[in-house]
Amino acid sequence: MGFPHQPHPKETVVLSQYFGDADARTYAGWKQRGGYAALEQALSMEPAKVIDVVKEAGLRGRGGAGFPTGLKWSFMPKEKTKPHYLCCNADESEPGTFKDREIMRWTPHALIEGCAIAQYAIQAEVTYIYIRGEFTEPLAVMEQALAEAYQHGILGSNAMGQGKRLDMYIHRGAGAYICGEETALMNSIEGRRGNPRIKPPFPAAAGVFGLPTTINNVETLVAVPHILNRGAPWHQALCLSNPKSTGTKLLSVCGHIRQPGNYEVTLGFPLGELLNDLCGGVPQGRTLKACIPGGSSVPILNREETESCILDYEGCVEKGTMLGSGGVIVFDDSADMVYQVMRLARFYAHESCAQCTQCREGTAWTVRILQRILAGEGAMKDLDLLLDLSEQMTGKTICVLSDSCAAPVVSGIKKFRGEFEAYIKGAKRPAMALA
Ligand SMILES: Cc1cc2nc3c(=O)[nH]c(=O)nc-3n(C[C@H](O)[C@H](O)[C@H](O)COP(=O)(O)O)c2cc1C
Ligand code: SF4
Fold it and tell me: What's the gap in Å between 15 CA and the centre of ligand 1?
């Protein structure tokens, strides 16, 4: 349910139940709503048992890749010889995605509880919640909730009076997209430049400060208390057809849509139904042209693909795209797809950390070629050049930012080639002048 709109009957409201309810932000309000019961339960279990429950529930990471959460937790060393860390990724800078900030704004204690359970399960003493620099209100709300959690003994050296150390710190980013990438985030916490690290070693072996670390997205972590409260079978049953994708997912819908906002649906929900029934469709007099279902990093769907796409991890892959972070960007027939692809590429060129040649040079050249086409100075061979460049930018770099730039370019040319050709042939007036 996306504040301020009311939940639609077809939504499955779990994580967003208290969006818009200011009382749920407070410790007292959260306790009244059953808060911290799941943490109490977790602390009475063996850490490995908590991991088993999350594995059985089938929870997968909501930050982008959909990696199984319990499995990720189980990669942490069993024999504890060094300090362990949990990082909560609250950077949320993927264009089109705006769900984590709402979770933090309305249910900060849900995030603290989810982090505390994960932290206990992976035997970490400390959690860092890495919040995007621009999130001023979520930051203030989280800081207030964290102070309350310490005041009431939920956190600290004797968390909930159970003799376990659970400490939590908020680390504010400075507003760089790349710091959402897990290893760049760890560098940033350490006070270094936010450059992604070469993997392996993976974070479970050498993460923040070179010590075993697990990193999870905000939405992933807030799902955990519900799983402990209601049981793994409840979560497994939240599935419309595909048992590999379970639970609910918050979808941030924006662009050419009558009712933008966050919508929470069971995985397996049809994308067409989300756009037409829950969000009211595209503006009057317009028709749907395209949609990016998982944040700007994933391939663009055309109208037919959008209307038949199932919103779960495998359903999106079947259509040649990804569920990603669930940022649904809608384009109606007024959208200029060449311009939109250029804007996306320009974002990635701006955000590249510049360590890898393919990314540093490739993103910049992609933008220049697209701008040349938009200026009416392109040639047909530019399309092949863009596709070739995109191929060189995919699967060859330290992180996938480079691939993310290539995805909308390749899918854009493949599905809307006529629009690119119209600029090249002079059939369409130039949309911009070359600088
Ligand atoms: C360039 C880039 C930016 C990313 N930004 C975010 C982000 O803002 N938030 C996030 O949760 N994950 C982001 N990710 C994914 C993280 O690297 C990581 O996979 C995720 O936080 C793991 O959490 P999960 O398993 O709970 O999904 C990004 C990845 C890349 C390559
Ligand atoms: S792919 Fe781009 S953003 Fe990622 S590490 Fe390489 S240069 Fe940096």
Answer: 19
pLDDT in the model for residue 80: 87
pLDDT for 136 equals 95
What's the 178 CA to ligand 2 centre distance in angstroms?
A: 8
Cα 425 to ligand 1 centroid, rounded to whole Å: 40
Specify the pLDDT at position 276: 97
Q: How far is CA 431 from the centre of its chain?
A: 32
The pTM of the whole model exceeds 0.85? yes
CB under 6 Å to ligand 1: residues? Answer: 61-65, 67, 72, 89, 91-94, 178, 180-182, 215-217, 220, 399-401
In degrees, rounded to 5, the angle at the alpha carbon of residue 401 between the alpha carbons of residues 126 and 409 is 150
Nearest Cα neighbor of 68 from 84, 45, 83, 52 is: 52
